[in-house]
Specification:
Elements: H1 8-24, H2 28-31, E1 43-47, H3 58-73, E2 76-80, H4 88-100, E3 106-108, H5 114-120, E4 129-132, E5 142-147, H6 149-163, E6 168-175, H7 178-194, E7 199-206, H8 217-229, E8 234-238, H9 243-253, E9 256-261, E10 277-283, H10 285-297, E11 304-308, E12 315-317, H11 322-325, H12 328-342
Parallel strand pairs: 1-2, 1-3, 3-4, 4-5, 5-11, 6-7, 6-8, 8-9, 9-10
Antiparallel strand pairs: 10-12
């Protein structure tokens, strides 16, 4: 896992100042208004979740949004990586340093940043803070970028049930938290609504406060192997970087995998397994990041809850794999389910 990316000043300075800044509360005189970047170029920053950039999933989707902003808006992008076993104080320090460097907005990738943003955002009232996948922390300068994951997962359940030959499919959650339970709930409902006799094997890799289930591919690989040995021929993993292990296991056994967050069929790091990736549940994290950055650049920062669902293509099911597109019965069922959810004929559960 990387420790330092392009913002070496943040990565190194954070480590050096973490204890002193946490103990002393930082420099109060500089907190209220962050200074512009030394080059005078406007800048925005993202702080990555567990697994960091290169996870082929959630964090990489956020990075794509930052890169688009760099290209389209001509801003400077800054990135900060997580560290193994870090605590809230580390996240507070990371966000504080990003804000002090003049980045605006500063976006925490993942619900784990909620406590840190709650502490840091009030100290920088002129900086917009974004948090992805959390609505628990609000404020006059906080944007909550959230998704209807259960809706996309329902479509994955429909596809899995239709594509399965054994009638047994698997769900793997990285960590058993409410967010990932939304994925499980939607997937299971989609499977059962499509084939009431289908069996869904569900497993979580770790329990909080252990978040290794989002970071260690070996955990996902072992879980998928176990489900496949138990008869599953389609496995859906909502587990960040650990999900790549599940995809590898499915490929090795000649079974189907369903990706998550990014269109994993098109992820370079998973190219050797792509033929086994039936589809992916996508969350338009990239657009959510870009749109927030653009709102700040336009001088009208978006704050409050910003929700992305099927109705706005904020979540969906990828069709990049030609084999998936050839499955007429599968794709027709998925399209019907999508239309019914948007029309509110189907209400998708958010908890198992």
């Amino acid at each position: 896992m990387r420790r330092i990316t392009r913002i070496a000043t943040v990565g190194i300075a954070s480590a050096a100042l973490a204890l002193s800044a946490t103990a002393c509360g930082g420099k109060k005189s500089s907190d209220a208004s962050a200074s512009p970047s030394e080059s005078g170029q406007k800048s925005a920053a993202i702080a990555y979740d567990i697994g960091g950039r290169g996870d082929q999933s959630f964090n990489d989707a956020a990075y794509a949004g930052l890169k688009k902003a760099e290209t389209d808006l001509k801003i400077k992008g800054a990135e900060a990586e997580p560290t193994d076993g870090e605590g809230e104080a580390d996240k507070v320090q990371r966000l504080t340093e990003l804000a002090r460097k003049g980045n605006n907005p500063v976006i925490g990738v993942g619900f784990a940043y909620a406590p840190a943003i709650k502490k840091v955002a009030p100290k920088f009232p002129n900086t917009t803070f974004g948090i992805i996948d959390d609505t628990s922390v609000t404020g006059e300068n906080i944007a909550n970028l959230v998704f209807n994951e259960e809706q996309g997962s329902y479509l994955a359940g429909v596809a899995a049930a239709k594509a399965s030959k054994t009638g047994t499919v698997g769900f793997i959650g990285g960590v058993e938290v409410p967010l990932i339970k939304k994925f499980e709930a939607g997937f299971t409902q989609g499977v059962k609504d499509t084939n009431a006799n289908a069996k869904v094997l569900s497993q979580y890799l770790t329990q909080p406060p252990n978040f290794d289930g989002f970071a260690k591919p070996d955990l996902g690989k072992a879980a998928a192997q176990g489900q496949i040995d138990a008869g599953a021929d389609v496995v859906y993993a909502a587990a960040g970087l650990a999900g790549s292990g599940a995809i590898e296991a499915a490929s090795a056994k000649g079974k189907w995998a369903i990706g998550v967050d990014s269109d994993q069929y098109n992820q370079a790091g998973l190219a050797k397994y792509k033929d086994s990736i039936l589809t992916s549940v996508t969350k338009d994290v990239a657009d959510s990041v870009f749109n927030l950055i653009k709102s700040v650049e336009d001088g009208k920062p978006t704050i409050g809850e910003i929700r992305y669902g099927l109705d706005k293509d904020g979540v969906g099911l990828a069709d990049s794999n030609p084999k998936y597109k050839e499955m007429a019965e599968v794709t027709a069922a998925v399209e019907k389910a999508k239309a019914d959810i948007i029309a509110k004929k189907i209400t998708v559960k958010t908890a198992p």
